[in-house]
Design goal:
This protein is of the alpha/beta class. It folds into 2 domains: about 120 residues, Aspartate Aminotransferase, domain 1 (Alpha-Beta Complex); about 240 residues, Type I PLP-dependent aspartate aminotransferase-like (Major domain) (Aspartate Aminotransferase, domain 2). The strands form 3 sheets. The chain has a 7-stranded mixed β-sheet, with helices on both faces. It is globular. The relative contact order is 0.17. The structure holds pyridoxal-5'-phosphate (PLP).
């Protein structure tokens, strides 16, 4: 098998999650429409309530404020376009495409958007954020963890600034949910996007946390039966939501251990790949999640490198949406990294099912490939 080191793009489904989904699909009566008032509907609705509580627990939030969606892309669209009455939005130039494209759409429709650029470490300048806030700033949208570099923004300080200026804060937590502790009773985030397939759950399901009362000020993007606080109509996919709930409860239990193991893997990768020479770590590694490592090798183009190693290891050169269209990373460019580093960047992302053999295989394979390509 090829070593799978692209967990930031998507994670394998945990066996326990798969079993829970299958059981739900097989379950007698669990197929009912969760909005129906008969016994079949009630059973499906109970499954959903359990999952909603498990997802909420991982955010230390009320389950009543979890709006299930089809994934973080939809959650991000709902957060931004749902508050489109805002006159001014602040975001960053290194967000996921679902934020960039939604903000560009709003910009074309008359909303003023400020695009903050991080420093070469990946950090947003908090003074610049503060200075960019205006009386009419309705929303600030910043990702907790960057999907290409793994850089962790200081969300607590960002929330403090945004709240002190009386604006709303949306956080794209697709890469941090289930990996870093998030406590919404302590951090005043108003809207937060998450996704199941980044935490060993199924694709096609995610959620948006909506701070109590805010739902009344938002415009749904999907109109219909008024499910999910009226923000997201449509019959809920019970089996996918059940899978999401199980994935969230497993993450709750294994977060600490995953963190410890993946920290060890990352240290080993940095140490061994560093010995090849001419390696650069993109972004401040001391402020990044342990499962993502973004590096460039002098004189080596990432597309050529990824192609050369593809029969042995699965790695990427950025977000999944980008890697199909050979396009250098807009994230690393916005961080102001030199073009050679941008064109050379590869992302190695580990996960709960990565084994030390995968790490050793990656080291050996990259060592051989970089040496070959340089010669
Ligand atoms: C930071 C970030 N936001 C949003 C998304 C989109 O998530 P989904 O695939 O659930 O739509 C991703 C997925 O790569 C991501 O990394």
């Amino acid at each position: 098998m090829i070593g799978y080191l692209d967990n930031a793009a998507s994670t394998p489904v945990d066996v326990k999650v798969g079993l829970a989904i299958t059981r739900q699909l097989d379950s007698n009566g669990g197929f009912g429409n969760p909005s129906s008032v008969h016994e079949y509907g009630e059973l499906a609705s109970q499954y959903i309530t359990t999952a909603r509580c498990d997802v909420a627990k991982l955010l230390t939030s009320s389950d009543k404020q979890i709006v299930f969606t089809s994934g973080a892309t939809e959650s991000n669209n709902l957060a931004l376009k749902g508050l489109s009455l805002c006159k001014h939005i602040i975001t960053t130039a290194v967000e996921h495409k679902s934020i960039i494209a939604s903000c560009s759409f709003l910009e074309q429709n008359g909303v003023d958007v400020t695009w903050l650029k991080p420093n070469p470490d990946g950090a947003i300048d908090l003074d610049e954020l503060s200075d960019s806030m205006r009386v009419e700033t309705g929303l600030v949208s910043i990702a907790h963890v960057n999907n290409e570099t793994g850089f962790i923004q200081d969300i607590s300080s960002i929330a403090e600034i945004v709240k002190s200026k009386g604006s709303l804060l949306h956080v794209d937590a697709a890469q941090s949910f289930g990996k870093l502790p998030i406590d919404l009773t302590k951090c005043p985030i108003d809207l937060l996007s998450i996704s199941a397939h980044k935490i060993y759950g199924p694709k096609g399901v995610g959620a948006l946390f909506v701070r109590k009362g805010l739902e009344k000020k938002m415009t749904p993007q999907m109109h219909g039966g008024g499910q999910e606080l009226g923000l997201r109509s449509g019959t809920l996919p019970t089996h996918q939501i059940v899978g999401f709930g199980v994935a969230a409860s497993i993450a709750q239990e294994s977060m600490e251990q995953d963190h410890e193991v993946l920290t060890r893997y990352k240290a080993r990768l940095i140490d061994a790949l560093g010995q090849i020479g001419g390696m650069h770590i993109n972004g401040d590694v001391s402020r990044s999640v342990p499962n993502i490592l973004n590096i460039s090798f002098d004189g080596v183009d990432s597309d050529v490198l990824i192609h050369r190693v593809r029969n042995k290891i699965a790695i990427s050169n950025g977000s999944a949406c980008n890697s199909g269209a050979i396009e250098p990373s807009y994230v690393l460019r916005a961080m102001g990294l030199p073009e050679e580093r941008v064109y050379g960047a590869i992302r190695i992302s580990t996960g709960r099912f990565t084994e030390s053999d995968d790490i050793e295989l990656a080291i050996e394979t990259l060592h051989e490939a970089v040496t070959f390509l340089r010669s």
